[in-house]
Write a structure and sequence with these properties.
GO terms for molecular function: DNA-binding transcription factor activity; sequence-specific DNA binding. The chain is of the alpha/beta class and 300 residues long. It folds into 3 domains: 10-90, Arc Repressor Mutant, subunit A, CATH 1.10.10.10; 99-161 and 262-299, 3-Layer(aba) Sandwich (D-Maltodextrin-Binding Protein, domain 2), CATH 3.40.190.10; 166-252, D-Maltodextrin-Binding Protein, domain 2 (3-Layer(aba) Sandwich). It is 43% helix and 19% strand. The strands form 4 sheets. It has a 5-stranded mixed beta sheet with strand order 4-3-5-12-6. A 3-stranded antiparallel beta sheet has the order 10-7-11, sandwiched between helices. The chain starts with 9 loop residues before the first helix and ends with a helix.
């Protein structure tokens, strides 16, 4: 006999498992939470769908037919998989994840201000993807990007979040013992800490190399190492003002460098920008980055 052209549901199979395991409708009521009439109707529906008798009915209850026993073995396996899925699901964090790709210094600034991003227990989780190579939003490699140039790709939404300025910083002790730090003599008279070519994060490194040549006292392969070395008194370095001004171990010894500012843009894919968790995180980041510019203006 051919099967009915109808899809069976897991709910019906779950009720079949309850009746088969308990040996009757009455005993299956408490296990399934479904009334006896409903159980009877759903079992009959399942038998009709499969075009086969799964239970033999008798006054003392029900017993499985040979086909019913075969189905029970398969449904028991399905139930084990279902339990494994439920166990896995309970271990997952219910909060949505937002992937944010940013440059190195912006990632440092965001991690130093997490309390402004995670404003409640329900705030989305964030995966911060930092580096000089930005991931592709069009291929959904990230949900939000902070970029130093306005993107021109189709399908992206962009928001200007303000300028990024750069200045020269050094430790108070180093600058006190090297007064040239505060004048244009600094480029020839002071020690410098710079990133390597591979560790450079933008045009500021190239600009400084043109000023001092290959005379740097220390070359570091990560931006964080540059900051740490300068804070330890190793020499002067160039930093984004939103990093240097907020670093208590450093002092600013120059005005913002006129040739280095650039605009920052917050970018999202037009399809994901409407998602509440992406929109919430994008707004929080944009507000935070605008606030840092106000703080820099106040400090200067």
């Amino acid at each position: 006999m051919p099967f009915k052209n109808e899809t069976h549901s897991w709910d019906d199979l779950r009720l079949f498992l309850a009746v088969a395991s308990e040996g009757g409708l009455a005993n299956a009521v408490s296990r399934s939470g479904v009334s006896a009439p409903t159980l009877s109707r759903r079992i009959s529906h399942l038998e009709n769908t499969f075009s086969m008798i799964l239970f033999d009915r008798h006054p003392g209850g029900v017993t499985l037919t040979p086909q019913g026993r075969e189905l029970l073995e398969k449904v028991q396996q399905m139930d084990l998989h279902n339990q494994a899925i439920q166990s896995w699901r309970t271990r997952q964090d219910p909060r949505p994840l937002v992937r944010v790709t940013v440059g190195y210094w912006t990632s440092i600034y965001l991690t130093r201000n997490l309390d402004r991003l995670f404003t409640s227990a329900q705030s989305p989780r964030i995966e911060l993807l930092s580096g000089s190579q930005f991931l592709n939003l069009s291929r959904r490699e990230a949900d939000i990007a902070i970029r130093n140039k306005q993107p021109d790709q189709k399908g992206l939404k962009r928001r200007r979040i303000g300028p990024v300025t750069f200045a020269i910083f050094g430790s108070p002790t180093y600058c006190a013992s090297h007064p040239q730090s505060y004048s244009e003599e600094r480029y020839a008279a002071c020690d410098w800490v710079i990133p390597s070519q591979s560790g450079a994060t933008g045009g500021s490194s190239s600009w400084l190399r043109r000023k001092i040549g290959e005379t740097a006292r220390l070359v570091c392969d990560t931006p964080q190492a540059v900051l740490e070395a300068a804070a330890a008194g190793g020499g002067l370095c160039i930093l984004p003002c939103f990093i240097g001004v907020n670093e208590s171990r450093l002092v600013q010894v120059s005005d913002p460098l006129a040739s280095l500012p650039h605009e920052q843009w917050l970018v999202t894919h037009e399809n994901s920008s409407a998602l509440p968790h992406v929109r919430h995180t994008a707004n929080a980041i944009a507000t935070l980055m605008k606030q840092q510019q106000v703080g820099i203006d106040t400090a200067n």
